[in-house]
Amino acid sequence: MRSHIRTIIVLALAVGLIAWFLHNVDLRRVAADILRARPEWLILSLATMYINLAIRALRWKYLLEPLGPTSFASAFRATAVGFAASTVLPARAGELIRPYFLARQSRHGQHERMSATGAFATIILERLLDLVTVLVLLALYVFVFDRDLAVTNPQAIVWLKWIGAIAALGSLTALVVLFVVAGDPGRLRRTLERLERVVPSTLAGLIARVAEKFARGLGAIRRPRRLLVALMWSFPLWLSIAAGIWAVAVAFRIAMPFSGSFLIIALLSIGVTIPTPGAVGGFHAAFRYGATAFFGAPDDAAVGAAIVAHVLSQGPSLLLGLFFAAQEGLNLAGMQRLARQAEQGHTA
C-alpha cells in the first residue's frame, strides 16, 4: 500500500513538473524547432551517450576490484539495466537494482558471487565522485572560462556560488564519514554486534554483517591512489556528457560555448534529484532555465532542446538495459520486484 501511495505521489509530481515546463509554450513552434535541428549534431550527442555509459562501466569495474573480479561486460550490462530501471521506475530505483543485477550475474557466472551490499557502497562513492567532478567543472566555467557571467547575471552567480559551496561541504563531509566507516570493516562489525544488548541477537548479527559488507565495498577510500584514479575517470565521463549537451545546443542554434555546458550539467544535476521516472520534468525545467537565463536562448528552442536532450540521454541506456534485462528473464514487473527486494536489504 505504501509503495502505491509513493508511486501516485511521484507520478503526480512528474505531471505537475511537465505542466509547468510546458506552460505558455507554443508546441507547434517547438515542434518546428525540433524538425529544424541539425541532425549531424544530434548524432554526435547520441554517440556521446554510449561513450559515457561505457566509461561509467569502466569506472565502476575499477571501484569493484577490491570486492573481487568483475568483467567489463558484467559492469556494462548492470549499468545499462540500472539506468533503464531509473528511466521507467520512480525514485531512481536503478541505483538499487544495479548492484543486485550484478550480483545476479555473478551468481550465474564463473566468478565468486559479488556482494550486492558491497557493490551498492561503490555506487554511493560514484555519486560523490560525480558531485565533486561537476563542482570542479562548474567552478572552471564561473571563474575561468566566463568571468563576464558575474556582470551579465550577478544574482544567478551568487546563488550558484552558494549552492556550489554547500554541495562541496556536503560531499567533503560524506567522504570523511565514508572514510571512517571504511577504515576497519571488521571492527565496525564487532562494534555493531554489541547491538544484541538492546535488540535480538539475530537482528544484531544481520546488521553487523550488512555493515561489514558495505564497508568492504568502500575499499577504494582506504587506498588514496585508487580513489584518485577513480576521480580521474570521472572527468572524461562528465566531459562526454557535457559534449552531448553542447551538441544538442548547437543543433538548436543556441549560442552556448562548450564550457557553457559545464553550467548546464550543474543545473541538470539539481533537476534530476527530483525522484520522477527518468528525471522527467526536473531535467527539462533545469535545461530550459539554463539555456534561457544564461545563454539567451529563445524559449521555444530551449524547450525543444530540453526534450531532445532528455530523449538522447535516456534512450541508449533504456534500450540496452531492457535488452540485457530480457536476457536475464527480467521484464518491467521483474525489475519492480528486484527493486523491492533491494530496498528491503535482502540478497539478490
Tell me what the structure shows.
With about 350 residues, the protein is mainly α. Helix content is about 80%, strand content about 0%. It has 15 helices and no strands. It has one domain (about 30-345).
Spell out the blueprint of helices and strands.
Layout: H1 2-21, H2 27-36, H3 39-64, H4 72-88, H5 94-108, H6 116-145, H7 149-152, H8 154-182, H9 185-193, H10 201-217, H11 224-251, H12 260-271, H13 282-295, H14 299-327, H15 332-343
From the alpha-carbon coordinates, what is the Rg to the nearest angstrom?
Answer: 21 Å
Order of helices and strands: HHHHHHHHHHHHHHH
Strand content: under 5%
Number of helices: 15
Mean pLDDT: 80
What general outline do the C-alpha atoms trace? Answer: globular
| Unreliable residue stretches | none
Q: What multimeric state do the chains show?
A: single chain
What's the number of structural domains? 1
- Helix coverage percent: over 70%
Largest sheet: none
Distance between the termini: 23 Å
Estimated structural class = mainly alpha
The tally of beta strands, per DSSP, is 0
In short, what is this structure?
The protein is mainly alpha-helical. It has one domain (30-343).
What descriptive keywords fit this protein?
348 residues, 78% helix, 0% strand
